[in-house]
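Quick one, tokens below:
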């Protein structure tokens, strides 16, 4: 089931880029990010309440709170930079560079989470990096 959700995530991410590029025209990129974020917040809390997930808020540990907050800050930074890049650049060049996050994530997962970094992972990272260069040059 994870594969279906991952694939849907990719489709929605692709739609996000195209819709954002059209929507950001003539709008301050920070304001556009704030509007997008407000929509995401409303949608996420709506799903939480629909599934009664709010009942387990008190069970979240301090460590989880800390890392969820740090993750939120990283997401905010990513979105602010992404929208600014979309505003001044071409989607076809911004998106491949943004997707270098795959390579960076694999390296960080190896260093900090001690996940396995195989020859297959290394080849994939090299190909993603090379593909990115080919697409943006």
């Amino acid at each position: 089931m994870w594969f279906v959700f991952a694939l849907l995530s990719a489709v929605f991410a692709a739609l996000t880029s195209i819709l954002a590029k059209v929507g950001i025209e003539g709008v301050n990129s920070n304001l556009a990010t704030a509007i997008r974020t407000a929509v995401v917040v409303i949608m996420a809390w709506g799903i939480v309440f629909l599934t009664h997930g709010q009942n387990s808020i008190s069970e979240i540990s301090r460590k989880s709170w800390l890392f969820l907050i740090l993750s939120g800050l990283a997401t905010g930074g990513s979105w602010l930079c992404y929208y600014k890049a979309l505003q001044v650049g071409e989607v076809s060049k911004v998106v491949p560079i943004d997707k270098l996050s795959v390579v960076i994530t694999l390296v960080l997962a190896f260093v900090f989470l001690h996940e396995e970094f195989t020859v297959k992972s290394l080849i994939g990272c090299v190909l993603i990096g090379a593909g990115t260069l080919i697409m943006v040059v």
